[in-house]
Amino acid sequence: MKLLEAKDLNIFLAKSRTPIVENLSFDVASGEILALVGESGCGKSLTGLAIMRLLPSGVEARGKLFFQGKNLFELSQEEMRAIRGGRIAMIFQDPMVSLNPVFTVGYQVAEVLVLHQKISFKKALEQAASLLAEVGIPAPKERLKSYPHELSGGMRQRVMIAMALAGNPSLLIADEPTTALDVTIQAQILELLRKLRETRDLAILLISHDLGVVAELADRVAVMYAGRLVEQASCVELFKNPLHPYTKALLEALPQPGKKSLKALSGHVPPPGARPKGCKFSERCPIAQKRCFEEEPSLRASGDGHLVRCFYV
Ligand SMILES: Nc1ncnc2c1ncn2[C@@H]1O[C@H](COP(=O)(O)OP(=O)(O)O)[C@@H](O)[C@H]1O
Ligand SMILES: [Mg+2]
To answer: What is the pTM of this model?
Structure first.
C-alpha cells in the first residue's frame, strides 16, 4: 500500500513565482526506503519540508501530498501538528540545530512522548530510556541526564532518531542524516536505520547527495535534477543499468576501490530562475543534441518500473 504519494508537487518562491520544484511525483510504500538523490540545490530538502508543511517563509507549495490517503495540504494546522513528529518525523544533517542545548536528552525525548501519548512525565522518562536503548545508546538510564554537548556527533544523531521514534512514526524523512559524520559512524547510523525499518516496518524517505549512502540503504531511488525527477528505478536496477546522463555522471564521480582518480562532475546545478529552456541538464550533458536545448523531455517508462527523462537513452 502507498503510504505517501506526491502528485505534481510544485514548490516556488511566493513573490516572484519562481519555480524551485516542478511537477514532482513519487510514492513511498509502507516499510519502504525511497531515496531522493541529487547534487546540492536540486530541491531535495524543500521537498522534505513541504511534506512536513514546514517550508521557510516566502516559499510555497502546490499539488497533492497524500499521506495514508489524506491530502496533507488540506489538513488544518491542528491536524498537521498531530501528524508532524507523530506519524511523520524528520531528522536533519546537524542534530545540534534541533536539540535544545539547555535541556537534558532525557527531558527532550520525554517531552515528545508526553506530547503524543498523554502519559505522565515519570512514565515518559522510563520510555525515553528504552528508546535510547533501541537506537543503540549505551547505558541509556545514565545518558538521560546528559546534555547534547556532552555527546559525540553520532550519539546526538541517535538521540534525534530516538526523538523521531517517540511519536511512533510510520514515515521518517531523513535529510542527509549521515553527511556531518565520519565514515565509520556514518555506517553505524545507516545500519541503525536499516534495523528500524525491519523492526518497526518504518518507511524512510532518505534524502542524500551521496549515491554511496543511497546504495547502502534504499529500495528505490528517485534522482532529482534542478527541481524535477530525471530518473527513477529500484536501487539494484539503477546501479546496474543507469540511463540518464546525469545519473551516469553521479555514478562515475563515486569513489571506488581500485579506482584512483574520480571523474568529478563539472559545472553546477542551475539555480531557480536561471534554468535553461529545454532539458535542465543540457548545458552539462555529454550527449546533448540541438533538440535538448529547445524542448524539455518528459518522464517516460523504460523497462519495468524504470523512469527516465531523456530523448536519447
Ligand atoms: N528559504 C529559501 N528562499 C529562497 N530560496 C531557497 C530557500 N531555501 C532553498 N532555496 C533554494 O531552492 C533550491 C533548492 O534548495 P534545497 O531544497 O535546499 O536543495 P537540496 O536540498 O537539494 O540541496 C536551491 O537553489 C536553494 O537556493
Ligand atoms: Mg538539502
So the answer is: 0.96
